[in-house]
Amino acid sequence: MKRQRYLTGFLASLILLGIWILMSLKVKGGIIPSPLDVIESFNLGTFAPNFLVSLARVVISLGVAILTAAPLGLFLGQNPKWDKWIAPMIFLTYPIPKIVFLPIFFILLGIGDISKVALIALVVFYQILVTTRDGSRSVKKPFIDALVTLGGSTVDIYRHVVVPACLPAILTSLRISIGTSVAILFFVESFATRSGLGNLILDAWGMADYPMMFVGIIGMSVLGISLYEVVEILERRLCKWAQL
Amino acid sequence: MIRVQNLKFTYPEGVEALGDISFSVKKGESCAIIGPSGCGKTTLLYLIAGLLPIQDGVIQVNGTTTTRGNIPMILQDYGLFPWKTVWENVAMGLILKHSPHAEIKQRLEPILEELGLTPFTNFYPSQLSGGQRQRVAIARVLAMNPSLILMDEPFSSLDAMTREHLQQLLANIWKRHNITFIIVTHSIEEATFLGKKILVLTQRPARIQAEVENLHAGDPAYRSSKAFFEISSRLRETLFATQGVQE
Ligand SMILES: Nc1ncnc2c1ncn2[C@@H]1O[C@H](COP(=O)(O)OP(=O)(O)OP(=O)(O)O)[C@@H](O)[C@H]1O
Ligand SMILES: [Mg+2]
Question: What's the whole-model pTM score?
Fold first, then answer.
């Protein structure tokens, strides 16, 4: 089973590499460099700091979002009286593309990292909040009753029922948020910064250094994939029961 | 041991669940409750367990009014926590009481052994058969060393053979541990086999239609005796009388 996953993964990578090489040969003007050109222009000294800055921005944003959205979602799902007021607010603000607030964030929080992190966090906050709240709402009442008959308090209900029951949903929303946050990262790194993979990509583009641009693009992918894997590992560790 | 007097209950939505219920169960006695579907059996157990507030009437266990969290109950569905292993499920009540680890171990091991669950301690509920799962539910309430256990149709989803096996297991536990049982069931045979006292409830709002004394409950040989069939037929008649021609 696992072996097959590795095999198909390996073959799929080969196919992608083939498509890449084919396109680098066919597309004119060197806009798509060959893999060899990209490897040649890879330079750890410039790549690593940019990668780490981007990684830090995404991880901190995701951390802030999950630490605020998940508890709030769990609480709202269990307390319809509060949710009655909050739900319409979420409903009305959910469809707004949050990235339009970037100028406001820049003005209020400065043009440094804080506003960048805040914007990414805001976008994924919504995704995590809504998924977690819906998960918490659908926790079956008898589970809670069972815990109460065993002597459980309100805190125990969260600890032993609501949180573990919603953990798969929280991790799924986190996984979806990774894709979103990397996309927003590219957007926020195109303004007012000299660091990060987004900046690297735009700089290289400006200088028509396409191999370097691809170094940045691949860096972004690696960033997303590694975070994705981390969540996968967490899921396997923490939600063994849900994967049986 | 337990005394219920003039108990009435109406849900906030206006559904009148319990009419006027009075009965008592002696210490170490087993009481089976049987009645038409939707008549209010689960509601009655929830009131005894303290999961619903008492509106009208009295429930006393050992001479005091009950508080929630003191009377373990095996629920109709969703009893076990799917995210906890067999061990964690059975230990739950003790974990909530912050019992020390060594004490939990000492208390759980003989219970798991008695119920034949020792090989499954690290399994999750979804990895068990229906019968094994119900044994875990029984183990979990036994771990709390209770004097009274409430059960809401614990065996209704099991096949006939597993069900009879677990009924016998329960009868043995009941005799050995001198625990008072109240068991709600849909099955006339189950009520006859397990209830030293059998209450037949009416249609909703539930009242007590009949109270049957059943001396030989729990004896392994009882199931194939003449008395067993007589009591069963009597229950069947009473039950059909409460249902009228509805079904
Ligand atoms: N939370 C609730 N709110 C409103 N009405 C309820 C609630 N729970 C149960 N009822 C209603 O109260 C009545 C009695 O329900 P209860 O679950 O006690 O019946 P029961 O005898 O256990 O049924 P069953 O044999 O199907 O398990 C039913 O008509 C049911 O629809
Ligand atoms: Mg019921």
Answer: 0.87
